[in-house]
Amino acid sequence: MNSVPPSQTERIAFPSPGKHLMNYRRIWQTVVLLTGCVSLIPLIFITIVDYQVTQHAIESEFLLRTARVISNTQRAISFFLAERKSALNFIIKDNEFNSLLSAKRLADILENLQESFGGGFMDLGMIDSDGVQRTYIGPYQLEGKNYKNQEWFKEVVDRGNYISNVFMGYRKIPHFVIAVKRNLPDGSFYILRAAIGIDLFQKLLADLKMEGQGDAFMIDHAGTLQTTSWYYGEVLGKPPLPVPNFSEKSEVYETGKTEEDRLVIGYKFIDDSPFILMIVKERKELMEPWFRTRLKLITFLIGSITVILTVIFWTSWFMVKKIKIADHRRMISLHQVEYANKMASIGRLAANVAHEINNPLAIVNEKAGLIKDLFLFKGDYAKDERLISLVDSILASVKRAGTITKRLLTFARKFEVSIQKIDLIKLIEEVLGFFQREANHRSVTLKLTAPENIPEIESDVGKLQQIFVNIINNAFAAIHDGGCIEVTIKPKEEYWIELMITDNGGGITKSDIHRIFEPFFSTKTKSGGTGLGLSITYNLVQEIGGKITVESELGKGTTFMVTLPLSTK
Amino acid sequence: MAIKVLLVDDEVEFVSTLAERLSFRNFEAIWTSTIDAALQQVEAQYFDVAVLDLKMPKICGLKLKETLHKMHPDMKFIFLTGYGSEEDFQIISDQIGEEFYLVKPVDIDVLIDKINSIVKPHKKV
């Protein structure tokens, strides 16, 4: 809404508020962007670093754990084999060739072995240096069988002992053999050979049964399963895994292309045997704790970002809004000062014009008065009523002009005066007087209704004048030609006076009426409204301790109610 | 005995006419348009009342009043001004009371009433 009087809008050009107000949305966006970057970049950076460090730590941890399991299991298996090999070595060294040829003696020894080692020993055979099995204790008739051309026989002759791969043999039971050789002084030798079932082996590995999808088994150097695997088939089967490269130490490596089928494989070549211990685990299962940690980390990151962004958005919005309000207030004050200054300038100008006119007016007054005096006192023209009425007409016009200049002077001066006693009726009459010309021109009826006993109030006359000029000017903008503006003054309660300025104009819509006192709210921006008139009016009313409200009905008109205290104190 | 009025104003047209009109109304009105002439007049004869312009070239009406008052402490004063401003009003009111202050153009009857009201109570007829 605009409430600068139309006669003044032409002369008082307020600078557009947009020129002085900043782009708050832009500021807000910049603040959000900068604060967001400053707080989120370190957070995201730290989280990424933590992500990588934690992932690496967890990976190292499970690789290490796998290596440890490999190492421990390998020791148990090596011990298992070494124990049995040592037992056979002891037997072959403790018993003479002839005594071992005795089937009974050999049967006793096998029985002792079976009792002492808790199983594993399936049979026992004595083979002479010609490769002929001289004595055999076991479930089959293998006495007299010649092994001379067999690979294992050559091996044991060369190395002194031998551990075979697992095979089925006659029994159709998976087993392997351990053979040890004793050299005799005459250059000949004999061999003690025992078949050992893989049940204990199997048990040893089964005890290791990994958590989840882990698998522990043994293969030979050709990659054939030496024990039954949980996931890669029965004994003597071929698992779909490559035979690892030889290494003296426990090794762990990863294989597989996608995250889904990646495997962590640990292996160890068992010394003095054809066996390779293998532990296979699914990587995704091992990484399970990491996935949980990762989920927490990501949840934390997203949560933190959400909280930080919310706080940044809200606080910056709040602060920019405060700045905006402060700026608006500053702008209003500036406009108010500017407006007051301009009014004062106009006042001074008006006063000067009035002064300049008053002197010649006084001369006209005296000259015309003298003419009348001459007519009356000399008596020559005393009876010429036409002449007398002409002079009276001049005098009346001078009086009228004098009233105008005096009113102009009084009005102008009031912009510079502060608190004083004010006759409100007189003040409103003066204000309406300024609109009289426009009212006459537009056939607008100006009405003032007031009881006679309105007490004088103590207030700032300049501000009051500005308040009513603004409101009445608004009313003029709202009404059509031939409309009516009525000012009603009445005492309200003990210490208040209420002034109602009612017009029969177009009224204000419900959505606009709540914003009517807001700074820069205008429905007439295109026609040069600054949206500051009523806002300034509102502030002025507040400054002199009064209240201003508005009621309006579309199509019927608007009433501004200004309640003023009898004294600003 | 007629009331003697001294009119001082730099607007000759105004002050001479006013003096003539007062003469018609049985006042002994003498007018001057300069300070020096005014002082000469006051030295030469006694006036009941002086009607002074508040703003004249060289001197302010109030200053002139002070000088004249020293010469004739019984003399009364009325001020006329085209500058009918609050400021002037305030100065006069503070010093001699607002009833001695009139704004141009002034109605002759108002001026006569004012003269009578301040001179008559003191004048021995």
Short description:
The complex is a heterodimer of chains A (569) and B (125). Chain A is of the alpha+beta class and 569 residues long. In chain A, 51% of the residues lie in helices and 19% in strands.
Overview of the structural elements:
The complex is a heterodimer of chains A (about 575) and B (about 120). By secondary structure, chain A is an alpha+beta fold. Among the domains of chain A are: about 100 residues, Beta-Lactamase; about 90 residues, PAS domain (Beta-Lactamase); about 150 residues, Histidine kinase-like ATPase, C-terminal domain (Heat Shock Protein 90). In chain A, about 50% of the residues lie in helices and about 20% in strands. Chain A has a 5-stranded antiparallel beta sheet with strand order 2-1-5-4-3, with helices on both faces. A 5-stranded mixed beta sheet of chain A has the order 11-13-14-16-15, covered by helices on one side. Chain A is rod-shaped and about 195 Å long. With about 120 residues, chain B is an alpha/beta fold. Chain B has a single domain, classed as Rossmann fold, CATH 3.40.50.2300. Chain B is about 45% helix and about 20% strand. Chain B contains 5 helices and 5 strands. A 5-stranded parallel beta sheet of chain B has the order 2-1-3-4-5, sandwiched between helices. In chain B, helix 1 links the parallel strand 1 and strand 2. The longest helix of chain B is centred in the N-terminal third of the chain and has 13 residues. Chain B is globular. At the A-B interface, helix 8 and helix 9 of A face helix 1 of B.
